[in-house]
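Let's do one together. I've listed all components of the complex below, 970 residues spread over two lines.
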Amino acid sequence: MHNLTIAELIKGLQSKQFSSVELTQHFLDRIGSLNPAYNAVITVTAEQALKAAAAADERLAGGNAPALCGVPILHKDIFCTNGVRTSCGSKMLDNFIPPYNATVVENFETAGAVVLGKTNMDEFAMGSSNETSFYGPVQNPWDTDCVPGGSSGGSAAAVAARLAPGATATDTGGSIRQPAALCGITGLKPTYGRVSRWGMIAFASSLDQGGPMARTAEDCAIMLSCMASFDDKDSTCIDREVPDYSATLGQDIKGLRIGVPSEYFSEGLDPGTEKAVRAALAEFEAQGAELVEISLPNTGLSVPAYYVIAPAEASANLSRFDGVKYGYRCEDPKDLQDLYSRTRAEGFGEEVQRRILIGTYCLSAGYYEAYYGKAQQVRKLIQQDFEKAFESVDVIMGPTCPSPAFKFGSKGDDPVAMYLEDIYTIATNLAGLPGMSVPCGMVDDKPVGLQIIGNYFAEARMLNVAHQYQQATDWHDLAPQGVAS
Amino acid sequence: MSWDTVIGLEVHVQLATKTKIFSGASTEFGAEPNTQACAIDLAMPGTLPVLNKQAVHYAVMFGLAIDAEIGKESAFERKNYFYPDLPKGYQTTQLEKPIVGRGNVEIELADGRKKNIRIHHAHLEEDAGKSLHEGDFRHGVSGIDLNRAGTPLIEIVSEPDMSNAEEAIAFAKKLHSIVTSIGICDGEMSQGSMRFDVNVSVKQSGSDTLGTRTETKNLNSFKFMEECIAKEVERQIDLIEDGGTVLQETRLYNGDTKVARSMRSKEEANDYRYFPCPDLLPVIVTDETIEELRRNLPELPDARQARFVEQYSLSVYDASVLSSDAGMSAYFEIAAEKSGNAKLAANWTMGELAARLNNEDTSIANSPVSAEQLGGLVARIADNSISGKMAKEVFEGIWAGEGSADEIIEARGLKQVSDSGALEQMVADVLAANQAMVEDYINTDEAKRKKKLGGFMGQIMKASKGQANPQQVNQILAQKLNELL
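Okay, and this is what the predicted structure of the assembly comes out as:
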């Protein structure tokens, strides 16, 4: 059952080939036996899941079940779940049990999905390797000596290891696409404002966006159709009808103009990765698409701009974790200053503290214009690069990340090397554009991701393009050793 | 050496919205601590602000009332600092793009002189909670009440246009009058609905160079403000004349103990690291909205004063006293209409009623005597049903809740006797019973006879239990005695 896609599971459930309780129990058993090797899931909600599955079976029997009725999924531990610990991968929130659901969680509940548990992640979504989690690193199912990518490494590894057919994730600078690429699955970061941020713990509010992870584009389409919604609790959420993304998956892509940015194929790109991505582009050409060489001249500025804007916003977003109201509090504070400094020094990990310090510095009197002001200007330029590109192309394609999964600790002592991991993904967050990653090859037995960037609200087109590719290729069907059986 | 004083004010005005500026929690005053703070006010992880439209409208109304430029696109920023009663670790406020730009407020001084005070800007922001360090909270433990956290405020910033305490108080009172007149603030100073920060500096008379200023924060009464300014001006002059220098600092003044002290120096001041709040969109106020608010703007105090003179033939002084307070104005107008005698209604509103309210330390909004009831009382004075002296007794009855003036007059048998037949009989009876006094009157010099009338009056009023109409009695008495000459 665990090799079936969400689309297939829905059919199986509706045709009573298996019940949701059977399905749920099966995935819970897999988590029980396989998760210790990956550390992808940090909270398992077996009891609630089985209860929800039983309720789903009743609705399925009733005949008018909602879209995802009875389908088990996992939530990244950044989405608040009513009554279930939501840690954001941090010691700071190790004891935090929210009294409310994120809108995304509500939406999946409404759609009838069964929540198996919460997935591991880089602390406060800050990281590209899942090494910064308070709950320890996640192992990549393709090679357990390698990282799964981050920050949604737990969700990506769980889907790759078939611990769940789909999982929610978030992407601030590449946190959906990069782990999806490194774990050989499909992930989509929607247009900023497409998915509500209510109840999704903020890292960098102007960049954060939730999205789905699954094995196929078709499954991502099913998940996004229920995940996206207008939400008046999030002022940055955009009031725009949510299409049925599954309904537009069957269109051929003859004449599709694919922009290939030269900047995405320059120095630093692993040759094997480039070869796989070029092969994917050739496949699109074979299907009748047209490749157009384009330039996104400010790509090189995206990482430095991002590492000003994101930490600046984070430095304020994380001020609420002060030991006063909830979460971790240091032992026996001797005064207010001591309460603040020890709570935050003990409760936050090193990478989070580094980014808070960077952000605080960038916003300080005398530095604001040189850093934050400049970064905002760069952000405008990057947006303009994309606007210009989309005048002549329908989608943009390139590698998701410069190389396949790397070994644990290999970038640990060099934060900048780690930050460059997101060089191809960060620009879309700065521009607010949707981007996805689709498996497109293997290098040294490790997956490679093809990135597809669309114009604002072009998710339906991107999903169709990815789906057409997956109809003709089987990279997305490959499974890490030992997990398919 | 002589000195000039320079004063500028920053005024925090709590807006009279039902709910908070960024959440749906109630803003009502006086609830049990922390019962009016929802997840957003508590800065729970993943929660997001949604702007209260009414607060925006109230701010625009203030701008219109002072003839200011309205910011058609204003923006919220985060002001970062740590304090336990600031749950997010930043205050959401406006800095670069405030909702209200430059404006003007005209004040009138005791000598009738008028002066224009320029408003630099007014911006929207959220209030913080309250820290409690007294009562149950001592010995290193402080209480935090977050009921007030998120209450909408406008902060009005004046230019340093005031040169003494009288002008500062006149300005503060005028602002109070404006915001209560247009209904955007309840004006309850004792509940913190209006709080004043006073910037004071001194300079040598005639000099163009401003002295170093101090800011005394959070004064919530006109009286305290007056005392504080006097003390601060004296302190600064003494300091300079003794060869010292004024330090730029934030100060506190305790109105109960009359002690002023330094809170923090410029060096200790926070670097607030303002930056645009990414959770909120720019606030767009359309021309249509501005025009609609302008059309519906309640009468301003200056216009009301002019109307009171015109419509009710009140003196400028009376009109000014009544019109300065929105509650008193409304009260007066009802009482004037009900009584049919505006002048008398004005006297009773400003005199007996205001004095009694002041003694009981209550506001006109909570007056036990309604405007209708006072109008009813004034009507009975105007038609001579009761004397002024009896009216005070009736007023007390109304205050005590015994009913309307007519009911009390009836119940206590206080109705004035104005029936001339009955009064003539009463006078005749008193003259007949006091022959010696009559003889004395006849034998007295004509010039001194008038003085003797008092004795008869006393007898008659006593005989009538105070109910005889004194003017009529006087007339009848004089006439009857003259007949005896």
